[in-house]
């Protein structure tokens, strides 16, 4: 995970998509990174895993309990058993949380990349693809306009679901 730079967000909260599992980090976040290794790709179902390290004593689980999967002899990965959201990477050197699981993920900027041997060859070309907003697709505009989200909001709630 490394310790290049600390993320500048004190007292950050987050959780899974359905709201069954929530957390709060009291104090400073650690180093933010992305990992391209194949294990992280599979664990996140994505091109890479965006992670930020936290000190064990600063992480508090405020709702629910994450389920753990031992992905190797050294690592466990935490996720929500209800909706499947990836939440943690837990190794002997510490714990890291999924950046996208935070309520304000845009404030956590990765400072280093790991596992470049697994980087997908087209990743650097993604920014050159045509880009559109969700509502710009005329074939799905009615679908988007009538969509009702059951996703937990990006802030703590006393109870969930409402």
From TrEMBL:
Q: What is this protein called?
A: GFA family protein
PANTHER family membership? CENP-V_GFA DOMAIN-CONTAINING PROTEIN-RELATED, GFA DOMAIN-CONTAINING PROTEIN
Write the record's keywords in alphabetical order, separated by commas. Lyase, Metal-binding, Zinc
Spell out the SUPFAM superfamilies in the cross-references. Answer: Mss4-like (SSF51316)
* Organism of provenance: Pseudochrobactrum kiredjianiae
Q: Which residues form the CENP-V/GFA domain?
A: 12-115
* InterPro entries the record matches: CENP-V/GFA, Mss4-like_sf
Family membership: Belongs to the Gfa family.
What superkingdom heads the lineage?
Bacteria
PROSITE patterns according to UniProt: CENP_V_GFA
């Amino acid at each position: 995970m490394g310790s290049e730079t600390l993320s500048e967000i004190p007292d950050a909260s987050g959780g899974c998509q359905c709201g069954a599992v929530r957390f709060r980090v009291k104090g400073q976040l650690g180093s933010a990174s992305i990992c391209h290794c194949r294990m992280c790709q599979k664990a996140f179902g994505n091109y890479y895993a965006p992670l930020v390290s936290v000190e064990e004593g600063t992480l508090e689980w405020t709702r629910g309990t994450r389920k753990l999967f031992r992905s190797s002899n050294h690592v466990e990965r935490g996720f929500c058993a209800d909706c499947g959201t990836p939440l943690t990477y837990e190794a002997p050197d510490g714990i890291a949380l999924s950046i996208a699981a935070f309520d304000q993920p845009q404030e956590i900027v990765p400072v280093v990349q790991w596992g470049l041997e697994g980087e997908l060859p087209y990743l650097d070309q993604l920014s050159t693809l045509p880009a559109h907003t969700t509502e710009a697709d005329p074939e799905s505009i009615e679908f988007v306009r009538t969509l009702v989200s059951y996703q937990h909001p990006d802030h703590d709630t006393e109870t969930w679901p409402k």
